[in-house]
Every structure is written in structure tokens, then in C-alpha cells.
Design goal:
Length: 98
């Protein structure tokens, strides 16, 4: 069964909130360091798939959170844990299915 994680940037307003949501949604290991490098390492080594991440209201993500959006998109390109997107390309810059 595909694990589905929804990250809504209308609600996630800072990095701590994003890290909390990622830890819960992805069941990240105890050693997760709550930064970009640690997230990348966990996505590439620790997170088991298949996985779908839905990014909502990306247009509301500030510059610091945008770095995480970019990292998740890059992880989609490089990792095999993601399930194939089920609904085609995103409708606009507010929702992105990875």
C-alpha cells in the first residue's frame, strides 16, 4: 500500500512545523537531524516506499520552506520510493503531487 503524506503550506508556516509533519508522515528515524541534509539522507536511505507526497499551497511557502519543496521535488526525481503520480501534472503552483 502506498504511504500518502500531505504537506499543506497554508498551515505549515515555519521549519519546525514542517519537520514535525515530516517526522510524523514519513515515520523518520530517531536520528533525523531536522535540517535539509538530514531530510535528504533519510529520503535516500531510511524512508520506505511506495510513497506519495502532496504539496498543497506551495505558493504560500516562504523562501526557507521553498528549499524543502525543492529538495522533495529533487528526491522525487532521484529516488525509487515514490509511487507514480496518479493524477498527472499539478494544476498550478498551489498543489504538487510527488
Amino acid at each position: 500500500m502506498t504511504k500518502r503524506v500531505i504537506l499543506d503550506f497554508a498551515l505549515l508556516t515555519d521549519e519546525d512545523m514542517l519537520h514535525d509533519a515530516l517526522e510524523r508522515g514519513l515515520a523518520l528515524p530517531a536520528h533525523y537531524g531536522r535540517n535539509l541534509d538530514a531530510l535528504w539522507d533519510c529520503l535516500m536511505r531510511d524512508v520506505k516506499g511506495p510513497l506519495t507526497i502532496e504539496l498543497r499551497h506551495v505558493d504560500r511557502a516562504g523562501p526557507r520552506l521553498r528549499r524543502y519543496v525543492d529538495l522533495l521535488r529533487e528526491g522525487r526525481r532521484r529516488s525509487r520510493i515514490w509511487a507514480s503520480p496518479s493524477r498527472g501534472p499539478p494544476r498550478d503552483d498551489r498543489t504538487d503531487r510527488l
